[in-house]
Amino acid sequence: MTGSLNDGPGKDSCETQARESHSRESLAPGVWGVVATPFQGSTLDVDLDSLSELVEHYEAIGATGLTVLGVFGEAAALTAEERRQVLETAVECTDLPLVVGITALATRPAIDEIKAAQAVAGERLAAVMVQANSARPEVVIAHLDAIHRATGAKVVLQDYPLASGVSISTPALISVVKWCSFVVAVKAEAPPTSVAVAELTAAIGVSVFGGLGGQGLLDELMAGAAGAMTGFSYPEALIACVRSWQRDGYEAARDQLLPYLPLINFEQQARIALAVRKECLRKRGLIKDSGVRAPAAAFPEKLRYGMLTHLREAAAALESAAHDANNQTPVGSY
CA-to-CA distance for 38 and 33, rounded, in angstroms? Predict the structure, then answer.
């Protein structure tokens, strides 16, 4: 698509899509866990047993849904057959709704990825996560419109310039969402995320989620975020934070997240975040091996003491929260 927004991606579809609707479909609020893809051994084969354990853990702790084959799922480093195996495992091991990440920025390859995901996930596919592929809203609209025409898929629009290499303004994102009624959520990962979340939630009628490991979660919730769509080695903390926000507001949410903030910051270190998170997951016993595929960097052994310190603090916080929950006196009892 070229030209201005007035040119549109097709009058017959966009006259409907351009109308804002107060009742348009939106992805459920809460925490959508971004699932790492575990590898094993010197050959870094996909470890489907560890993957199944990780997926089952997310369901057991109360995640709203799962995001598989995302950036932190190393989807770009997987073959088409491996992507199919990962998605099949997620479908088989949990009843949670799934958002599937699409690695391609070009339209035709993205359509092929989506059709492959639909063939595996079927009705379990809540949406596909597609990255903004241009700074120009008319280009993104044409891209998404072609995807929807070819697949019928609902879309989570991801703004993650660190991964995509594309920087798009928040007003441009708003234009895209207003034109494309099949966009059911936006994942805002272009700092400052809280500013973007506030502008998006004020202008569009769909859920906006934060990411980036939960670093900005409290500010994003105050700005109107529906929750988080991200990974963290203690996703229990993100779930507790969002639930407390929904139930009791800022102070309760802050108290839930505060003990985990050192680990959240530790995990989100530039260039090594993926390896750090996978090593944290391994130490928790949620996956067997913490290997990453190139071009991701390996875990720096010099950081092991710091990691173990933060993990001990997080484990103590989780144990304390479980103890408090088990010892709450029900109303009306003595």
Answer: 15
